[in-house]
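Researcher: Next entry in the queue.
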Amino acid sequence: MSFQKRHSQLFQAVFITVVVILLVTVIRSLYYKASTPDDENLFRTTPGSILVTEQIEGRLYNEEDPNSSTSAAETVISVGEIVRSVDGEVFRQLGTLEAYLTGLDSLDELTFQVFDPRDASTRNIIVYYGNLPQNAFRGISSSVYVITVFEDGASERAGLRVGDLIVSINEKYFKNMHDADRILKEARSEKKLAYDIIRGKENLTVEITLATVGLHLPVLIFFFSGLIMMLIGGFVGVSRPQFIAARYLGMAYVVTGFFIAFMEAQRTIKDDFVEVRAIFLIIAIFLSIPLWLHAIHYFPLKHEGLLKRPWVRNVSYALAALAAIWTLFVNDRYVPFFLLLLLVYNALVQFVFRKQASPEYNEINSLIKRFNNIAMIGTFLTIAYLIYTHWGSMDRAANKYVYVGIHLALLPI
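Model: Structure for this entry, 413 residues:
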């Protein structure tokens, strides 16, 4: 008798403990989100502190042909954009930029990298020094830029707009978005917030009356889609622990459901467990893929071709571990790349070893795949549409990802 079969009761006890912990985490977070007053907007740290206050004429930098010309619409640095760098040098203070520009000839070319908070885009513009207007720049304190204002929410009613720069909350200044979140959390007990903002080059104050319920449709859809998957996975794993297929299917559903439950909410829940939950989410999303691969070793029937080659699943687990470690400790920008790598590897494994499964396995599995493919095709088409329609400003697509959650809810079928 194998180790797994002899220890089905131990697995059941450990599995129940893990599922309960994850479910409590999900439900607690949903309760926190629902009961915490919300300003109903999202923001990120502004990548610079030098504001453009006058329109500047120039030409769009082309790496392949730096001397190429572009249309007039593409050659303007607009009021309200942020200077990220000049000639590749980053300037944190207006004084250092002014010192850099001192003594230049009117025909000297400068390459400005500018960030537009209204669509979260970055461009490189070549400008003649002689085309710089007087007082073209203004130094500002550290700020955050608004990426989402929920429709009919508290911030929209108060007049806050996407692209506004928030420089203080209730007259308290901050260094970055995390510091702003801390101030926001402390101020929520007051029920009202005063945002000092910059729109274009104007200074404005926006007073926001906090919403008493902090739940929105995207958050609810993802929460309940993930919760359904977790409950199904928990039932499968607990009710049939003697079957190896049930164990891995149960674990795969629970881990995947946990990630889906927080896919949208993690951006908006600002409690004391943000960092811990982020670690759990990274582990969950990467671990779910090798768990699904491991599950098909036994479900719907034993796949002898895969069972004879343990290295197949071991490679998938190793890639998942590498991806999680790299994301947590090195750089989190490559999450999509690692996910794609794992998914491609798993797909190749199933394709290469498809003929080594029994006819019964393939027949039953084809029926299961038809149902799953409906959800997956809908998911990928929705994501592709959002990328296509929001390319260069993906922050603006945040609210529309609710439609992805609807497709994901079909996966347990």
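Model: The first strand starts at residue 41 and ends at 45.
Researcher: Noted, moving on.
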